[in-house]
């Protein structure tokens, strides 16, 4: 989370400093209307800057993933930037409209307009001629952007509707780029702010075009065929084994991939539940019925069906130097640990004398499926992992105190958590309160893509 916060606040701070350097006269504003002009420019710069970086992150680029801690963290940053762009855009709109409302209510007097100097620069003259359409289109793009971001943020709205409408943001972004280029103070473009803003707009425009042509991560997609489906009704889950066409680069335990089984529904992210074997190019996903789409998969998926796999993504890969690890899987969050146990069992079989990590796995769940638990227990035995299963109705909730009681040497371990975000945050805070370095030794998957 540290790198996400650093990236987010660093972008806002950099844009703010560049704007102040480009327009220090803001401190000399002597009236509301003088301040209005400065604030509209500033809020506009922040809004389009956040939206531009969010557009680039929508391409799921490889280069920032490791530094940010995985695609799940990158999507968290994408969400923060989208919300911030919305807030700054609303502020920008209010600075435009509120003084007019105040004049209408008699709270402010309309300022006298002096004569405008003649425009000498031909580019500035050309942009000035586009001012009226840029204002009109920008206002309608703003209204549409507010609606689309609201659709993205409201969980009750089905994923398929979010998937279809979210792409429209790429179009509204291009309209807002036109709005920005025309209405940004012309003097900014020859300053470091203008150079930075131009680079952001170019990068965001490229990303928007890629999104509109449906070419996001096209080079990381391979075809697959479902060869086996197993149902676990007790936990409302199914395991789908897929034979991959050539082109899959392999994956590490703990990573995830986007799966498209219905073009209308779009790609959904699922954690991979199998170790990679190039000699047997198959991949398994364990999927729980948590929403409208996943609840229908048991009926819609069939053996022989063609699907599209994109990835792999994520940095939840267990690769630290700790001799002791504690894994915590809440509900369907057990999936990355299943993958890791299969990889450990494979390594144990081929290198029986190699040193092993000491690992405890805590699996807490509200549901019960004996077949699924038996499989989990067998995987733990094969991987030399000590398994602790807690059924909420029988054993109560898993807490930090309970883990410390079970493991007196917990301070020597690194922790790997996958499950409900609130549950993980509570455990992180609990261990931090006991002096544990959660910043570097508590790893948490933020598996939420909207």
- The largest sheet has its strands arranged as 4-3-6-1-2-5
Radius of gyration: 26 Å
β-strand amount? 15-25%
Largest sheet: 6 strands, antiparallel
Helix content: 40-55%
In N-to-C order, the SSE pattern is: HHHHHHHHHEEEEEHEEHEHEHHEHHE
Low-pLDDT sequence parts: none
Silhouette: elongated
Mean pLDDT: 91
Distance between the termini: 17 Å
> Based on helices, strands and strand pairing, what is the structural class?
alpha/beta
Describe the protein.
The protein is an alpha/beta fold. Helix content is 51%, strand content 16%. The strands form 2 sheets. A 6-stranded antiparallel β-sheet has the order 4-3-6-1-2-5. The longest helix has 34 residues, at 71-104.
Brief overview, please?
The chain has 450 residues and is of the alpha/beta class. The protein is built from 16 helices and eleven strands. It starts with a helix and ends in a 6-residue tail after the last strand.
Can you lay out the helices and strands and say which pair or pack?
Blueprint: H1 2-22, H2 32-57, H3 65-68, H4 71-104, H5 122-129, H6 131-153, H7 159-166, H8 168-183, H9 192-212, E1 221-232, E2 237-244, E3 256-260, E4 268-271, E5 282-288, H10 292-300, E6 306-313, E7 324-330, H11 335-350, E8 358-365, H12 370-383, E9 386-391, H13 392-395, H14 400-406, E10 414-418, H15 421-433, H16 438-441, E11 442-444
Parallel strand pairs: 7-8, 7-10, 8-9, 10-11
Antiparallel strand pairs: 1-2, 1-6, 2-5, 3-4, 3-6
């Amino acid at each position: 989370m540290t790198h996400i916060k650093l990236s987010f606040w660093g972008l806002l701070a950099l844009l703010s400093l560049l704007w102040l350097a480009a327009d220090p006269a803001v401190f000399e504003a002597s009236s509301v209307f003088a301040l209005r002009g400065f604030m509209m420019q500033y809020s506009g710069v922040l809004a389009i800057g956040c939206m531009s970086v969010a557009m680039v992150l929508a391409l799921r680029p490889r280069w920032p993933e490791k530094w940010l801690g995985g695609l799940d963290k990158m999507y968290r940053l994408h969400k923060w930037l989208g919300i911030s762009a919305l807030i700054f855009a609303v502020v920008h709109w209010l600075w435009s409209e509120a003084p007019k409302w105040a004049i209408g209510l008699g709270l402010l007097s309309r300022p006298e307009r002096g004569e405008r100097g003649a425009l000498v620069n031909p580019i500035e003259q050309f942009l000035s001629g586009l001012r009226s359409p840029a204002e009109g289109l920008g206002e309608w793009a703003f209204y549409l952007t507010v609606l689309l971001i609201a659709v993205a943020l409201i969980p009750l709205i089905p994923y398929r509707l979010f998937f279809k409408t979210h792409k429209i943001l790429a179009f509204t972004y291009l309209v807002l780029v036109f709005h920005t280029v025309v209405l940004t103070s012309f003097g900014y473009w020859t300053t470091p702010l203008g150079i930075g803003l131009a680079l952001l707009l170019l990068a965001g425009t490229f990303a928007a075009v890629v999104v509109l042509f449906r070419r996001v991560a096209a080079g990381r997609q391979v075809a697959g065929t479902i060869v086996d489906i197993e149902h676990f009704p007790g936990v409302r889950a199914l395991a789908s084994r897929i034979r991959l066409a050539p082109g899959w680069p392999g994956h590490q335990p703990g990573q995830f991939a986007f799966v498209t089984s219905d073009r209308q529904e779009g790609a959904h992210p699922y954690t991979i539940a199998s170790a990679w074997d190039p000699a047997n190019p198959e991949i398994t996903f364990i999927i729980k019925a948590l929403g409208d789409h996943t609840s229908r998969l048991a009926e819609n998926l069939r053996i022989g069906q063609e699907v599209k796999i994109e990835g792999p993504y994520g940095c939840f890969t267990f690769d630290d130097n700790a001799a002791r690890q504690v894994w915590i899987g809440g509900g369907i969050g057990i999936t990355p640990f299943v993958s890791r146990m299969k990889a450990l069992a494979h390594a144990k079989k081929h290198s029986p004398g190699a040193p092993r990590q000491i690992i405890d796995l805590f699996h807490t769940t509200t549901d019960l499926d004996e077949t699924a638990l038996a499989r989990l227990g067998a995987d733990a035995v094969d991987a030399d992992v000590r398994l602790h299963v807690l059924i909420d109705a029988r054993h109560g909730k898993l807490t930090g105190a309970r883990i410390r009681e079970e493991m007196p040497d917990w301070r020597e371990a690194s922790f790997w958590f996958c499950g409900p975000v609130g549950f993980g945050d509570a455990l992180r805070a609990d261990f931090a309160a006991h002096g544990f370095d959660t910043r570097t030794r508590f790893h948490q998957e933020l598996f939420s893509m909207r």
